[in-house]
Design goal:
By secondary structure, the chain is of the alpha/beta class. It is 31% helix and 25% strand. The strands form 5 sheets. Strands 3, 7, 8, 11, 12, 19 and 20 form a 7-stranded mixed beta sheet that branches. The chain has a 6-stranded parallel beta sheet with strand order 15-14-13-16-17-18, with helices on both faces. Strand 13, helix 5 and strand 14 form a beta-alpha-beta unit. It is globular and about 65 Å long. The relative contact order is 0.14. InterPro entries: ADH-like_C, ADH-like_N, ADH_Zn_CS, ER, GroES-like_sf, NAD(P)-bd_dom_sf, SDH-like. GO terms for molecular function: L-iditol 2-dehydrogenase (NAD+) activity; zinc ion binding. Keywords: Membrane, Metal-binding, NAD, Oxidoreductase, Transmembrane, Transmembrane helix, Zinc. Belongs to the zinc-containing alcohol dehydrogenase family. It holds the Pfam family ADH_N.
Length: 380
Amino acid sequence: MSRPCYITWLQFDKAWHLIRTVSIGYVFDMPTKNLTAVLYKINDLRLEDRPVPEPKEGEVLLKMGCVGICGSDVHYLVHGRISDFIVKEPMIMGHEASGTVVKLGPNVKNLAIGDRVAIEPGVPCRKCSFCKEGKYNLCGEMIFCATPPVHGNLSQFYTHAADFCYKLPDHVSLEEGALLEPLSVGVHACRQAAVGLGSIVLVLGAGPIGLVTVLVAKAMGASKIIVIDLMQNRLDIARNCGADITYKIETSDSVEKVCKALTELIGEPPTTTIDCCGVQTTACIGIEITKPGGTYVLVGMGANEVKVPLVKTCIKEIQIKGMFRYCNDYPLALAMVAKGNVDVKQLITHTYKLEQTLEAFERAKTGSGNPIKIMIYCNQ
């Protein structure tokens, strides 16, 4: 008499992962080469083959999908440094990224081979007071992609902490996964500003971060969004992202002229100003025009020191808040994209293959063709 065959859930789970692994072809075709974009020094970016890394405990090996070029990447290329972060040794570029899991390191339980993920590029220590208080973006031991001396992920294969990889739903593309990085900056900015239903939001600057801030503010229920910038083409995109009012300024415009024009256009002062430029002029505009009792959030990083009318912030009781990167914002950013509340793909203006990385960075550096977001496909 035959006996029924029983298997445990663990056995079934292991069998399923094996089936998935074989079906996507990674068991028998693990690569030996890894084309990688490496910055050696100012204006010296090279493509070279490097070994495929091995995932350590708690890490996954990713076949990289998309990597966006950020303003910070261009800054390192042109200047070799951002503040105290200096490129002293060759550094792999890239931090706005997504990929597919091809190998699991020991003790990875939240992901499986074949999962497509968005990569949160900053991995904190998880042990300090900031991490334990839920403010891990302020962790002093943060390891952040493409921030000297830490390597980035602009390569064909890359390893990353599994708990800072976010599984993408089937209907969310790898391009959208990569764009969760800048979108999370917009989420963090709007959270700092407490944007909500009925908020009147002024966004200073319509670069990529200004545009994602507009997208998030709209999704969070802002009743009126105003955007200013020097470039009309960016203001046109801001309209598509949800801006109700746009205003083109000139470099010669005084703070008084801009504030007067904005007051006439808006009809009432903004309850919140989010400064995505961080230069002295925009800081002064923000403090001058924000409604008494309102909030001014500084996102853009300009010079270390700027002259601002601090006494006016006292008289108007304006809250001045800084913000740095993001913290616990990726899940909300992903939910916004997955639910269709924001359309980040409209920000992609130029695409390149990994082999065309030097050409892509040249476009980002010169600004030819008015790029907003340049996306590099790492395994096409």
